[in-house]
Every structure is written in C-alpha cells, then in structure tokens.
Design goal:
GO cellular component, one term (chain A): bacterial-type flagellum basal body, rod
Order of helices and strands of chain B: HEEEEEEEEEEEEEEEEEEEEH
Distance between the termini of chain A: 20 Å
Radius of gyration of chain A: 25 Å
Helix content of chain A: 25-40%
Oligomer: heterodimer
Number of domains of chain B: 2
Family (chain A): Belongs to the flagella basal body rod proteins family.
Shape of chain B: elongated
Protein name (chain A): Flagellar basal-body rod protein FlgF
Main location (chain A): other
Organism (chain A): Azospirillum brasilense
Chain lengths: 240, 261
C-alpha cells in the first residue's frame, strides 16, 4: 500500500546522489584536467506478491564526459596539455597512476613531478630528470623532452581500451585494471598549455535547477500519498 | 548532506583563488615580482557501486561504477617564473637579470636571501645595497671619488675615478640559480629564501652557461598580465557564485525534507 511512497523515495535518494555529482563538477570547474561526470539511472523492476510490476529508480553508474577541456595558455614550459585520448603516467608507492592534469614542475632533484610532487614517468619507466645547468626545456608533440644539451627522454603517454573503466582516486589521478596501451597517433602534447576542466557551468546550473524541482515534485507526491492514506483511514474508520 | 560540504570546498578554493589574483594585481608594478597561480585538485572519491561488480546472476559486469567525488582542494599556489619585461630607468645602479638567476642579499640575521629586484642603492659606506639597505653579496664598494659606474653584461662592476682615464674593476656581481626556483619561499620585500624543495643555491657569474645576463640601467617589472588577471578574477567570482548556488539548492532540498508531515 505504501509503494508509491517508496518509489518516490527511491527517486529522491538518487536525486540527492546526483546533486552530489553535480556539486563535485561545479567545485572542480577550475581544476586542471578534470572531466565532468554524469549519473545514469535505470529502472529497477519488482513484482511484490502477485501484483503488477513496480518500477523503482536506481543510480546505475557515473560516467565521465571524456571530451577535451578548453586549452589555457600559461607560458610555463612544464605546463603540458594532451590533445586526444591520452594520459600522462606518474609513479606512486602503489604503482603507476594516470592523469590529464599536466601542471608539472621540477623538484629539488630536477625531476619532472606533477602538482602533487609525484614523479612523471618516461617511456622507459623511469622519472625524467632535467640535467643541471640547462635552462630551456622543450617538449615536442610526441612527448620527447629535450634541453639545449639534447634529448632527455620521452614522456610515457598511454591510453586504455575502455577509459570509462578507469577509477578516480582523487588529485586528478586515475587507476585502471586494464593494461595501458600506447596512445593513438593523434594524441599530441602541447607545451605551455593546460587543459581546463570540461565542466560546462550553464549545463550544471540547469541540472541543479532540474534536480531541485524534481525533488520538490517527488516531495509533493509523497505528501499527497500521505494525505490519501490518512483520509482513507479516517473515512473507513467512520463507517465502521 | 554531502553536496553541502562539496559546495563549501568549492567556495573555499575559489576564495583562495581570488586572494592569489588580488595579490598579483596588487603587485602588478612591483619590481621583480613573479605572479602566482592557484592550482586545484579533485578530492577523494567514494564508491557506491564499485566498477567491475556484477549486476546480475549471469555475472554481467557493471561497466562503470557509481563514484561520487568529495569536492576540490587547492593543490598548490605555484609561482610562474616567466621573465618580466625590462624597463629602462637609466639609473646606474638599477640592474635587471635577463634570464635565470637571483641576486644574493645578506639579511641582518646573517642568512642569505635571493631577489630579482635589482633596484640597488649605495649605503653611507659606499656598499651596494638593496632598497632595504641589505648588502648585495659578494659585497662591492664604490669608492667615494668615483664619478661613473659601469656594470657589464657579465656583472663586472667598473668605476671611473675623478681625474683618471682608465676604468677600475671594483667587484663582480654574482647570481644564484636553483634546481627548482619555483620552490623558493617568498618572505616579502621581494626576497626569497632557499628551501628543501628549491635545492641548494648554485653561484655563478652572469652570462655563464645556465645564468642570465645582467642589464645596467634597467629594472625587471613584474610578470603580471593585468588583463589575464582580471579575466581569471571574473571566472573565479562566477565559480564562487555557482558553488554558493549549490549550497542554496541543497539547503532548500533539506528544508523540503524537514517539512514533511
């Protein structure tokens, strides 16, 4: 008898989680290399007793919008942006992690490190170190890093068969159970640029309004249903 | 609710962004100032449905999980070390560094600080000092009878004494470079201190490999690009507004829930 309330409730719970996803997109609208996320909903069918089917809502998945973010010119030689589907590789204590955030810098050993200080790996699996006494760092489109004294190494730029299977671990890093593959030929490194997040503020704002209104109408439905049950009980009680 | 906290992280991050930008704008005409940029990172993610879990008895694998992020944080306020423009001042003791390297300055505490601001003066004893009166290292004394001072591109300081034709070398300006100059700690007054992140200072003469040249009679202006700062300021303000809108929406939804009879 309370099924309408439960169906509404299932929607309200998913709406709250969707609001969390939207809030995270908005909070990260200035985060380098951030990819906006969308929630997918599915119908969850149930046949209670012998009655007809009732369909609930379930949040099935969060998918990332993998489109490229806008490019921002910074002029910093170690700010690198990737065009196309590719990821830089950084080294952590628990294995390689992958990132689109190319706001790199040097550490005190002149190794190229990411924003969190993790060494960026070259295609030989070793961190790239810029020799002392050099000042010009050049990164070519294919990821080759060189100074005025010659080539230093090549950035390890990889991609995955299914990028949606990559898991966010925070700090702009991803991890995947899949084997990394060499990035496609159209993946290029742009030096002196950063990839902005691909969050579209207007889209997020309209989604925010929509969530709020849907939450409201579900609330209304719960209230109406509550009212219906109450008056039914009152009327039934009176005739008895 | 989680979105309240997420909106708050966004507002805090944008506030620091605005603070960084306002410091850049305030220092737009500060000699040797290097602009800073706030960098953001996403926070941890919570798994509500882990990627790769099965969705049916037949063993179907969920292609994507339900992962909800916890907002944003400031990862770093990085200093952008691009060269600032050189402005000609024609002041004999204004020295700009064209390229990499910092002047070394002795603080009253005895420690060495580093600066790009070459607006030097003379102390009562004739020693070359910074605008705050701290001696430049290695110390160079200009004799009182000098009528002209010339500093060449490799930092040699030559003076012409009254009544003499030949120039006399009175010292050599030195520069210091760092493995990671962005890791220097700014202490105000245009000064920087060495840190564990910057690496040890490496001294050298201007013009040597890896060191910039010095230019007499010029100053390095800040590398702040006002137009760029203003556009970043606008986008930071809008981002702040949107995060506050998230908080407002969440608040209204919570209000509705609490009004349920």
């Amino acid at each position: 008898m309370e099924n309408p309330i439960y169906v509404s409730l299932s929607r309200q719970m998913t709406l709250r989680r969707q609001l969390d996803v939207i809030s995270n997109n908005i909070a990260n609208m200035n985060t380098t290399g951030f990819k906006q996320q969308r929630m997918l909903f599915t119908e969850f069918l149930e046949r209670p007793g012998m009655h007809e089917q009732i369909s609930f809502v379930q949040d099935r998945a969060v998918v990332r919008d993998l489109s490229a973010g806008g490019m921002m010119q910074t002029g910093n030689p170690l700010d690198l942006a990737l065009t196309g589907h590719g990821y830089f590789t950084v080294d952590t204590a628990s294995g390689p992690r992958y990132t689109r955030a190319g706001n790199f810098r040097l550490n005190d050993q002149r190794q190229i490190v990411d924003g969190g200080g993790l060494p960026v790996l070259g295609d030989n699996g070793q961190p790239l170190a810029i020799p002392n006494g050099t000042k010009d760092i050049m990164v070519s489109g294919d990821g080759t890093v060189s100074t005025e004294l010659g080539q230093v190494g090549r950035l390890n730029i990889v991609t995955f068969r299914n990028e949606q299977l990559m898991t966010e671990v925070g700090a702009g890093l991803y991890v995947s159970d899949e084997e990394p593959q060499a990035a496609p030929a159209d993946t290029k490194v742009a030096q002196g640029m950063l990839e902005n997040s691909n969050v579209k503020p207007v889209v997020e704002m309209t989604a925010l309004i929509e969530i709020q209104r849907q939450y409201q109408s579900n609330q209304k439905l719960i209230e109406n249903e509550h009212e219906r049950i109450r008056s039914a009980i009152q009327k039934l009680g009176r005739t008895a | 609710m989680r979105s309240l906290a997420i909106g708050a992280t966004g507002m805090i991050a944008q506030q620091l962004n605005v603070e960084t930008i306002s410091n850049n704008i305030a220092n737009a005409t500060t000699t040797g100032f290097k602009k800073q940029r706030a960098e953001f990172q996403d926070l941890l993610y919570q798994n509500f449905r882990r990627i790769g879990s099965t969705s049916s008895d037949a063993g179907t694998i969920v292609p994507t999980g339900v992962q909800v992020g916890a907002g944003v944080r400031v990862a770093a306020v990085a200093r952008v070390l691009e060269q600032g423009n050189l402005t000609v001042t024609d002041n004999k003791l204004d020295v700009a560094v064209n390229g990499s390297g910092y002047f070394q300055v002795q603080l009253p505490s005895g420690d060495t600080a580093y600066t790009r601001a070459g607006n030097f003066k003379l102390s009562p004893e004739g020693i070359i000092v910074t605008a705050d009166g701290y001696p430049v290292q290695p110390a160079i004394t200009i004799p009182a009878e000098a009528v002209d001072v010339a500093i060449n591109a490799s930092g040699e300081v030559m003076v012409k004494l009254d009544g003499q034709v030949a120039q006399q070398n009175v010292g050599q300006l030195q520069l210091a470079t760092f493995a990671n100059a962005a890791g220097l700690e700014a202490v105000g007054d245009n000064l920087f201190l060495q840190t564990g992140a910057s690496g040890e200072a490496v001294g050298g003469n201007p013009g040597a490999p890896g060191f910039g040249r010095v230019v007499q009679g010029a100053l390095e202006t800040s590398n702040v690009n006002i137009v760029q700062e203003i556009t970043t300021l606008i986008s930071a303000q809008r981002a702040y507004e949107m995060n506050s809108k998230v908080i407002k929406t969440t608040d209204e939804m919570m209000q509705q829930a609490s009004q349920l009879r």
